[in-house]
Write a structure and sequence with these properties.
Helix content is 36%, strand content 19%. With 129 residues, it is an alpha/beta fold. The chain has one domain (3-80, 98-120). The strands form two sheets. The protein has a three-stranded parallel β-sheet. It has a two-stranded antiparallel sheet with strand order 3-4. The chain is elongated, with a radius of gyration of 19 Å. It comes from Escherichia coli O157. This is NYN domain-containing protein.
Length: 129
């Protein structure tokens, strides 16, 4: 049996998950466990060859799932303009955002699974993770 590695671009994948969630499952809460189920169901469908173009192909064995992502932004920053009625601009703490919490929980879930290394790509010069 041949082995296959699956590459997931996390930025694109999460956009598609959020779009599908808004369109079809708006009444349900999106959690890291739900996203893990989606990842595994998609990986298994690709490996088992359930599509018409893959009918003649033998099933593949999973080698690894490479999940390419950057760590979520965890800084506190000053807003550029003050809110109406205030003289000084406020602050925004990105650690309190739902997207930060979801992405952090997803990274933790991915770290728990076998065959799923997370590859972080940082765009900040000199930053290490």
């Amino acid at each position: 049996m041949k082995k296959a590695a699956i590459l997931i671009d996390a930025g694109f994948f999460m956009q598609r998950v959020h779009a599908t969630h808004r369109k079809h499952f708006a009444e349900h809460e999106l959690t890291a466990q739900c996203i893990m189920k989606v990842i595994w169901s998609m990986v298994l469908s690709h490996l088992n060859g359930k599509r018409q173009s893959q009918e003649r192909r033998e099933p593949l064995e999973l080698y690894r799932i490479y999940f390419y992502d950057c760590p979520p932004l965890d800084i506190q920053t000053r807003l550029p303009l003050p809110e109406p009625g205030n003289k000084t601009p406020g602050r925004k703490n990105f650690k309190l955002e739902k997207s930060y919490i979801l992405r952090t929980e997803l990274h933790e879930e991915l770290r728990k699974t076998r065959k799923t290394p997370i590859v972080f790509i940082l765009k900040l010069i000199g930053a290490t993770h």
